[in-house]
Amino acid sequence: MEVIQDQDTQVKAQVRNFSFFYGKNKAIKDVNLQVLDCKVTSMIGPSGCGKTTLLRCFNRMHDLYPGTHYEGEILLESQNLLALDPIEVRMRIGMVFQKPNPFPKSIFENIAYGLRIRGIKDKNVINERVERALRDAAIWDEVKDRLKDMAFNLSGGQQQRLCIARALATDPEILLFDEPTSALDPIATASIEELVINLKGKVTILIVTHNMQQAVRISDYTAFMYIGELVEFNRTDVIFNNAAQQRTREYVSGQFG
Amino acid sequence: MTTSQDRSSRGSSSGQSLVELTSRFFLGGLAFVPTLIVLALVGLMGYECFLFFNEVSFGDFLTATEWTPQFEENRNFGIQVLLVSTLIVSGIALLIAVPIGIVIGIYLAEYAPSRLRVVVKPVIESLTGIPTIVLGYFAYLTISPVLADRVLPQVRNLIGLFNQEFADSLSLAPFNGLCAGLVIGLISVPVVSSLVENGIRNIPDRLREGSAALGMTKFETLLHVLLPAALPAIVGAVILVTSRIFGETMIAAVAGGAETVLRFNPLESMSTMSAYILNASLATPSLDSIEFRSIFAVGAVLFLTTLVLNTAGNITEAIYRQQVIADQVAKVRVADNPYVALPDIRSLIVAGQQDGFRQSSAVRRSLDWVFQGISLISVFLVAAFLVWMLGDAFLKGYQQLSWAFLTSLPASARDSEQLGIAAPIVGSLWLMAVAFAFAVPVGVGAGMFLEEYLPRLRYGWARKVNAGIEILMANLAAVPSIVYGLLGVELFVRLLAGVTQGRTILSGGLTLAVVILPLLIIATRSALRDVPNSLRRAGYAVGMSSWQVIFFVTLPAAFPSIFSGIILALSTALGETSALVAIGAKAFVSFLPENVLQEFMALPVQIYFWATSPDPVTQKNGAATIVVLAGILLFLNVVALLLRSGRSKLSRL
Fold this sequence. Notes:
The structure holds 2 protein chains of 2 kinds. Chain A is of the alpha/beta class. Chain A has helices spanning 51-58, 86-92, 107-117, 123-136, 140-143, 156-168, 186-199, 212-218, 236-241, 246-252; strands at residues 11-22, 25-36, 40-44, 68-76, 79-80, 93-96, 174-178, 204-208, 221-226, 229-235. Chain A has a 6-stranded mixed sheet, with helices on both faces. In chain A, strand 4 (68-76) and strand 5 form a beta hairpin. Chain B has 2 domains: 17-24 and 401-445 and 502-653, MetI-like fold; 59-321 and 364-399, Orthogonal Bundle (MetI-like fold), CATH 1.10.3720. The radius of gyration of chain B is 28 Å and the shape is globular.
């Protein structure tokens, strides 16, 4: 695989000779990929290409369901996260899902939940963290006067930003986004995209998207996947303007997918 | 261009609309039957209560501390006596049913591996299929002696370490509230567990994933996310099971005893409200006596209590759905400068806990194992109870089983060696035939109307009617069957005596029809609701009218699950004892009934009479009858289960 040379970036995570199986079905085939620190990396490809499956390997989501297994390594800095306790992994790597999934709690408690479970009991610290997370997720002004309201009362776009705040509150080393705007309208989508752009330089972001324009707008690096394989990985402008592989060029120009 | 073809097609469509109107009005009429039942229940009960309170002052009814309807002099009707017993027995039952039921429900929904689940779930739920009369005798004949001879001495020794005097004072009466409460609690476990399981399963997976993605263990997700989300279902389950427990009759009557004395000690005999109704009906007091009216006064209290509980359940759930859990939210201070650098969160955690994540996640995860351990113990308890009970009845009764036992008439009431159960078997068959002849058409028709026609009425008064009927149905299904027994006595035995000839198969069958009607309506409605709307639209798209869609598309698609509901109703009706005792099923008839206007015996009632007998051979006959009845019910439940799994294949299409 190509190694990306860039002056000011470090490798945050590295996928090495990695395969993933649902039962006997090999859904991810021998993937090698690097995720650069504090950059946005997007994964694109047609439906069923394995991009979401690969994303969910990073926080060991597949461990929730029986009959799945991993081969190879995903290094988080120097540790193979496949050898760690999945709960420890998930405490370090946050995730935002396709559909907003706030908990049946107040807006405040949705954010505080992750902090409490990490053993933080000091109310001032919790208050500070909740506010910071809501500000970082650009939703503070909309909810600051109704933190006790149920999270379900927010609009879809607000719920999704709340979920982002929930993930940000715990200072994740990597933040995973699984098609975070596919259930939202264009205006809410724009606000989420702006948010992701603002998070650049603060958090390492890995995002799965169906929308190629979105990948162009927000990501620094892009990985193109096809039927479980990583076809090409490079800077986003290279992938979209000057891809090395025939299949990548066909996909980004809309000839299939 | 009007051709004859046009005209004929218009003609046929007006013919169709006539069918449409007829079917709508006919089904609507059937749907009105439940309302009639409620009116009859309220009216007749109110009338008898009115007569009762003409003789007994309402103040005395509330304040008297004795219940002595049998006395000629100094007769007292203090409802407290029965109410206290009912509360104590129900309290014990709730202490068993609610925690065990919730734990098992959670376990089945979240933890049980699917292979274990397919075994555990039917085993637990088969408890609801066992007639309560069988459980009552098991409590009285088997559990009570075990508690008295094995458990009580241990408890005495234990308490003796602290207070010898108190320990010596402990003794367990053969009939006692404790045993009744324990068994009622155990058989109510599946009611709670299946509702809780459904409630938790209905929570979308994305909530579980969201919580897991934050680094929560399964147990933390359960505690902080799933249980709050499932709280309406859990509250609903607890309230529903409370009203069931309140109305449970046969176990309370058989194991709890009949002493109507104001007592607070569950180790002694205590008669609950429903047990009093049953025992007083057995004495068949004259229909105009004060004893007879007192039955209705107690029935009214029981009816009102269950009504209030159900309404409370509905309201709690509605309120909860609107605003849900009030979270304790710390007051948030708006920081002056929000962008002061905050320390890395991991440094906070490590400062608090030297060992960091790894250690803490191992400790946190151990709660998962603790919970699974508790669940498995609960499952084992319930399963062991079931096996013990079935094994006990089989060991006691199998020697008596023979072809002759099944086919011979009792030669005489006294000679127990000669007893056969042909008369109760035939009696039960007749009762089922009568009950289903009335209940199936009415129940299925009303269910069709309520599900297929009524939801279209969304405006003005029709909407209110619709909402009212929903509440009515939920309440009807929760009325204890002994109360329906009282309705049967008053309506079929007394008022309609000209038609039914009194305490006959017709009266019994009609009463059973009333008992199972709500079950059939609910089963029909949920079966129709499961039919995907796309099927209906497909029907309309090819030009069918409403009634054609209902009869040719929806009903056939829903038929397997309606049929499985009918079979479950059949098993309920076959095991129903208290309503038939109230109606006046006989302990002994020396002929096989040939028409519906004759006196009758029935299998569960036969068990009731035989198992109480002091004669050991008659008791064995009772056990053998239990084996026969349990065998039939097991068969019916397996058939219903197979039908339901057949349906799930259909719905996958």
